[in-house]
Amino acid sequence: MLLLANPLAQLNGDGNVSTRYVNAVTSIVMGFAGIPMLTTDSNIVPATSSDAQNVDMLNDEMVDVARKYFNAAPKASRELGKLLEISFTAVQQEMKGIDNSLGLISSEMADAVKSALAVQLAALLAGTIVDVVQAGIADLSESHNLPIDKGFKNWMLNDSVHVYEDFLYERPFVNLALNDIATLNKLQGMSDSARDVSTFNRNCFYIGSKNGVNCAIGLFKSANDLNSTQKKQPLSGLTMPLRFKSESDWSKMGVKVDRWEKVDGLHPDGSKNEKGVPIRHVERYEVPAITADDRIEKYSFVVDDLMPHRLRQIRMNFNYQEEIAWECDITKDPEANDACTVYKRSGGGKWNAILDSASGDTIKYVHPVKKNGQFDFEPRKYGYDNLLAIQKDNQNTVTISTVNKIA
């Protein structure tokens, strides 16, 4: 059964024709060994999965998803596969020609000529069968490693090709940054360039009990001074966990806290390591009421999304009066100086792009969110020289909405 089912599945699959022919020949040999080859694409990801055929969201015509072809069978699609493709195609065309000419005169003679052609094709296959099967099996065994092999690193690392994250999305959530004070002190002592490339994890964390642990809220009196945070937030004051079991949790501003716990595990030599392996639990809480004792020169947030640096739109509203919005072109490199246009409006009026005061041209900006989700908003960089426009001397309300890559 597999001798027939295997090649039929491969010949009717996706991908280029030469690959299908090589896989069909390979599948016949695999069928002799009782090995099924009834799925197409790579050996780990079948076509139904890679096309997301059963994911309604990714098949909605209103969703902006671009499907790209990834060659998971490079050996089969090279010269050997092309030779098979040319040979099969030529024989098929000749047989059609025989049916349309000699077949009209004598079907017996036509069948004899077609049999001769089939013998010639079989002779060609016999001379290449070992190489064909070797190429097919090599692709089957190596396809899952292709994205991380040296020649394919740009497939994962270059935003202009396809990053694996391009195919995965989740609903974005914005947190007010809650940072570890000791880590901020270390970063404060670094140069700007060293700070930009630092891999220090700023997240607030605790081990065991939250009692007595303080972290720094992401509201700063000075844009360039990480120690100017407006308030040291005691973790014991975080009493409203966000579990996202209701729609209301998604509409709240949160803070993230890392809870570290040591559990039983193994040492590298395989011996037991009792309570020696640290694991991280991420907890989210609703932002408590915060009292600021000075103007806020920098707001620091953390955006949770698989691709936070590819958000299409960010809107901030201050006290339901002043608004600012980033409209970003996700086809551009987020580090490009012209990735986003920024608009402002007051009192629900008309949106106006921020213009250069000298030339009158629209100013373009780098995407405001980094790949790790860090989003720092410094009002003065966007023309809010008078902070009273967005900050009152009484209760203040700030709301943020985002639109991610999938919209």
- Rg estimate, integer Å: 31 Å
Q: What order do the helices and strands follow?
A: HHHHHHHEEHHEEEEHEEEEEEEEEE
Helix content: 25-40%
Which sheet architecture does the biggest sheet show? 6 strands, antiparallel
| Strand percent estimate | 15-25%
Number of discrete domains: 3
Unreliable stretches covering 5 or more consecutive residues: 150-169
Strand element count? 16
Distance between the termini: 47 Å
> Can you give the mean pLDDT?
77
Instruction: Report the total helices.
Output: 10
Structural class: alpha+beta
How would you sum up the global shape?
A: elongated
List keywords for this structure.
21% strand, elongated, single chain, 407 residues, alpha+beta
Write a structural description.
This protein has 10 helices and 16 strands. With about 400 residues, it is α+β, with helices and mostly antiparallel strands. The longest helix has about 35 residues. The chain is elongated. About 5% of the residues have low confidence.
